[in-house]
Amino acid sequence: MNLPMATNTVPVPDSQESSPTNQQFTEQDTIPDTQDYVPGQYTAWDFSPNEFVELTEDEKKVMHELVIIAARTNVASRRFEVEQAWEARLFERSYQHLVPRRGGGWSLPGEGSKWGPLSTADSSALYSTNTYGRDKDIIVSAMSREVPEIQFFPQDIDKIADIRAAKAANKYKRIYEKNNDLRARLAEIAYYFYTDDRALLYTRLVLDGQKFGFDEGGNPKGREITSIYGKLEGKVPMEAQYMKEMQFIQLYRELDVAIAKCRYPWVAKDIRPGSCGIGEIELDKIARVNTKLALLGSYVTGDAMMREVTEQYSWFRPEMFYDEIVNDDIRASFLQKFPTGCLVIYAGQTFVGARAESMDDHLVVAHGLPGIGQNRRALGTNGISLQKRLNAYLDIMDDFFKRTIPRRHYDSEAFDVAALSNQNNTPGGSGPFQRQPGVPVDQLVFVEPTPQPQPSLPDFVQLFFNAFPESLSGALPSIFGGDTGTETVGGAQIQRDTALGRIGVPWASAHAAFNEAARQAVLAAADRSQVISAYDKDTGNIQIDPDDLRGSIVIYPEYDSAIPESFRERETRYTEIVTLAPQNPFFAELLKSTKNMRAIAQNIRMADLTIPGEESAEKALGSIEILKNTEPLPNPQLLQMQQQVDEAKIGMMTDQVMGVPIPPEAEGMFQQLEQAMKSMPQEVPSVAVAQDESENHAVEAQAAFEWLNSDEGVSFKGGIFEQQRGFQNVFLFWQSHAQLAKKFAPHQPTPLHFTAAVDKLPPDAETQVLANNGITTAPPAIQQKQLTDTQHKIAQQVVPKTVPAAENITITKMKRAGQNNGPQQPPPK
User: Fold this and answer.
1) Strand residue runs (E) in 27-162
2) Does the pLDDT value for residue 828 go beyond 50?
3) C-alpha distances in Å from residue 189, one per residue of 168, 231, 506
């Protein structure tokens, strides 16, 4: 039986798309009874360049045995981690008054009653004050506020293929980031780190015409997609410390039976609702469905069980083929068909297919915290026991407030209790009663004494509400700008940095996982057969040849555990640069770069304002995309002048033949014209440059200058003939804009130089004059100097020639003498 093989064909890139272009594929599979089926046409399809391998019946049986072995491995510890993750996910949803069920799982008090737990249990026991979920929100928000930076490097820095692959991968990562909404994926990782501890990342090329559209040939488009799963969805060997030690990884997903049949039409008639038929993983499915449906306790609706099919992906390393159930012949066949391992797919209990696929090219196993084995402590584990105690203490207080309102007891002979219960209790009202002879009035009515609660209980509740869970989870108020107990900005910043440092380890783990997923996405993109094209507002059109991605690259995570700065922090820094630029030459120089203009536009919330030069910079980027892919044009003015000179010469020759005298100055005029033509450029850029002030010549020249000196520009300069001509085209574009920018630059007035006796000026004027000439002097120093001069003059009148008078010192003399602190007294004679 030939199972489906997916092969990609050349798509037509569309550089005008406003979002990353999806690669198109034409599937040319021969599938029995489903010849018209195109994977990805009606539902998502996980594409692979490797075909499903045809297996014999014996090989299918052995492969199924390997799947069962993997599912039954570490049954006890797997059950333990499933129940832990199940409980944590329910706690996060505020379902916290849980009772362990026989056989596994959780239920609520009174769940077995006719009307359910809400009707039979005391409703106050079902109210939870969810500090566990609160701290999860804080941790997830802190970890997902910024996406980790991804950077590729050549594996061999001296190998041109690796260098080219690293450059192409760093361009491709922009497409990958946009297609996957990495901020949302990072939030999912943080969620699983908090509730489950372990996250499983699955990266592959997904064909999905319903979601991504179709090409002109009607074939579904695709994107490299990374999906995130937790413990309940992914099963691994529990004793393994690292992913490289795992001989298998299993992934479980529930699909509606109609979707499963649509995805695998060649076995559609055999697909039935249900799980994989392995008892050891039945509880896993109940936990997945229960938490996804957000149902109380262990409820799973009937329609879910009746309609859903468990899709099971099992990746095996080649070492699994050495299990004792695999005989020599089948082992040899498996090693030949699956030299790097395999992926086996089941839909329920129906075998879908098996293909050669290495788990290292598609999967990443990540943990929020270091530990031993695969069932490690999650970020929120410490908070569950505190949450249980807090609920208990609050239930006690709630019970006390409702049940300890004092009751009154009346003398039955003096009062009609039934009538009292029916009368209105009007404030200030009056009513008669029959006095009992010999009995004091205060003995006719008895009020029960009010019980006093444990006096430390409110304070204890407060500790379990804030201090204890915050200290254990790291979700401190300083992370989100809450009250830190300090009145200084610096102190609050220190506390905030310290709090963020607490989640530095899970952040670094998430960063490393993202990097590896990005590397796997590059591998998937390298299987394409046509240029990958996309538009990015920062860099313009992106075009990547898949051949350039096929070198050897590496990606290193940054080992700085600090969380990246938030948008608000970046906005503050960029605003500071703009504000200080007039006084800071370095900042002023930064703002001249068109790249920095775009960075400022992205990082300062000025949606209603236009950043000066931003639109011109984007216009220049679009022009450069055209220029670098075309050749310069002959100068039309030069051609026109040459044509006019040639016509004039022909006319003169005609006049000479006709005997018409030629003016003596004609020869000189021709020489002047030819000299002027030699000074004119022979070629002009293929994108016209306005010769007036209708374009921002300075900004467009700067954009072209940055490209000429960029990695791509240098590559074009020394590249093949077409690239060199493209480089020359951009150079002429820069040259033209630069000349016009200089021509239309505003006239700068010549600075006025003069000599003045600064000591005769008032202090403020003296300070201003000195400052304008680069001399900074504090006003108090000037005033002290003037006071000293006055004292000297008085002394001269009293004691002639004893104290020399201060001389008038000109600015020119001061600069020549190198005096930068204002006028000084000459040395005594």
Assistant:
1) 45-47, 99-100, 106-107, 152-154
2) no
3) 27, 12, 10
